[in-house]
């Protein structure tokens, strides 16, 4: 006979484990199924360990430029192995933290591979091949996440052609690296390796680097990466990767013709693909579309009792989106009245240096939507805190509806902007207008003053420009 719970969550990533905790907080008996490590890709191979690598790279950059701060450092070097080890240690600590949270919230952890079947049932196969059925009285939440996408002409072999997991656990630092794709993953690894001395080339198929961002952001990051010694090619595609020799011979089609590169390693960072194969969707009758599980605004699939959240569904593939979806889903299963997620107010962050953060409409999208807009920009060059920190690169750009003052969007590049963007998210959630931002006192000296400065610029009230 199958063991029974109120809720069973398949996957313990940033969507799965918050869903399990919230369901437990609401008085439900919960189990979570995980085939590898608690915390999923985000905690173990994504968000957290990459930030540890980025911090090490940033510290190394500080040391290289110590003289700019009046400090003399005569000898320094990057211990690549130690950097990787620190990153793995941070990830391990976070995974143990999730295990603690499961115990604290009285959630049963079932290690194994889950497969949905029957009525609100999950079959779990453990490492020894033993199969056990578990049934949920109220619902099964599928939170199986995603993995790196493999392009047809760029076969990942884990040695010379790698994806993000291998990029954060290489045994030896490559002398040269070609990154395919300039989304958050590609740009972050490009910075990490370039800062530590690897010669990096970035190839992007679309017309701009970080193509989801405002065009002004794309232009600025291209300029900053050039200063760092990173070569970037847009409107370009990798046609062939030859790994028969000691390294990789890469053929790239660019607007200026075919170019050849010889590099030690190629990092494929061209998006992700959902983990929905072999988890019982077809047998259970759960519908999918374009490689994603189809859900409604409450994350219900077409089969009663089965829900899906996070990267295996059509929403933005971001950890904080998965967390929000998991919490809403758990509240819905528990029968609580809850609020649907506003996907138009989701912040996006890229943690390279300078950092990139944005939310809402880009200038182009706002104009295409028919808005008459006011645009303001405040350069970090005019920020006292940025000058003191030696981080004068970047700016804050804001976009308002000219008629009503609605805060349509914000786009930031510079130090600490991934922390600053939350102010805009809250402001937009509260339907704040330009007037409220202008009359909200921002502490001095801070980076956050740049946001107010940009709003002032949009309305012709700039003080420090």
TrEMBL record:
The keyword Ribosomal protein does not apply. GO terms for biological process: 2-oxoglutarate metabolic process. It catalyses: N(6)-[(R)-dihydrolipoyl]-L-lysyl-[protein] + NAD(+) = N(6)-[(R)-lipoyl]-L-lysyl-[protein] + NADH + H(+). Keywords: Cytoplasm, Disulfide bond, FAD, Flavoprotein, NAD, Nucleotide-binding, Oxidoreductase, Redox-active center. The active site is at 444 (proton acceptor). Its EC number is 1.8.1.4. NAD(+) binds at residues 181-188, 204, 271. One of its GO terms (cellular component) is cytoplasm. FAD binds at residues 51, 114, 311. This is Dihydrolipoyl dehydrogenase. It comes from Dyadobacter helix.
């Amino acid at each position: 006979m199958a063991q029974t719970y109120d809720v069973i969550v398949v996957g313990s990533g940033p969507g799965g484990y918050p869903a399990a905790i919230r369901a437990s907080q609401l008085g439900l008996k919960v189990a979570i199924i995980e085939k590898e490590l608690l915390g999923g890709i985000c905690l173990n191979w994504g968000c957290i360990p990459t930030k540890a690598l980025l911090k090490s790279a940033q510290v190394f950059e500080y040391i290289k430029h110590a003289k700019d701060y009046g400090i003399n450092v005569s000898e320094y070097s990057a211990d690549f192995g130690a950097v990787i080890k620190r990153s793995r240690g941070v990830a391990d600590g976070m995974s143990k933290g999730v295990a603690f949270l499961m115990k604290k919230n009285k959630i049963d952890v079932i290690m194994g591979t889950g497969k949905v079947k029957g009525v609100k049932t999950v079959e779990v196969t453990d490492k020894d091949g033993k199969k056990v059925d578990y049934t949920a009285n109220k619902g099964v939440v599928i939170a199986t996440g995603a993995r790196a996408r493999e392009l047809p002409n760029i076969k990942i072999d884990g040695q010379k052609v790698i994806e993000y997991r291998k990029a954060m656990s290489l045994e030896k630092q490559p002398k040269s690296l070609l990154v395919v794709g300039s989304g958050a993953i590609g740009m972050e690894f490009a910075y990490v390796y370039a800062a530590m001395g690897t010669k990096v080339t970035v190839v992007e198929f679309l017309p701009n680097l970080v193509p989801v961002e405002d065009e002004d952001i794309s232009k600025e990051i291209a300029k900053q990466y050039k200063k760092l010694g990173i070569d970037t090619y847009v409107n370009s595609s990798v046609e062939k990767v030859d790994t028969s020799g000691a390294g990789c011979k890469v053929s790239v089609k660019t607007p200026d013709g075919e170019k050849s590169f010889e590099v030690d390693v190629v990092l494929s960072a061209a998006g992700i693909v959902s983990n929905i194969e072999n988890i019982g969707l077809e047998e259970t009758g759960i519908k999918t579309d374009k490689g994603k599980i189809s859900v409604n605004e409450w994350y219900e699939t077409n089969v009663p009792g089965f829900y899906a959240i996070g990267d295996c569904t059509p929403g933005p593939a971001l950890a904080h989106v998965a967390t929000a979806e998991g919490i809403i889903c758990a509240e819905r299963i528990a029968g609580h009245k809850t609020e649907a997620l506003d996907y138009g107010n989701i912040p996006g962050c890229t943690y390279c240096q300078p950092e990139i953060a944005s939310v809402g409409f880009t200038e182009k999208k706002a104009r295409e939507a028919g808005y008459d807009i006011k645009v303001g920009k405040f350069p970090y060059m005019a920020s006292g805190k940025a000058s003191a920190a030696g981080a004068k690169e970047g700016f804050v750009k804001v976009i308002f509806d000219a008629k009503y003052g609605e805060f349509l969007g914000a786009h930031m590049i510079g130090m600490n902007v991934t922390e600053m963007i939350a102010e805009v998210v809250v402001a937009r959630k509260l339907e704040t207008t330009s007037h409220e931002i202008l009359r909200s006192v921002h502490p001095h000296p801070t980076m956050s003053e740049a946001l107010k400065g940009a709003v002032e610029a949009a309305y012709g009230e700039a003080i420090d420009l």
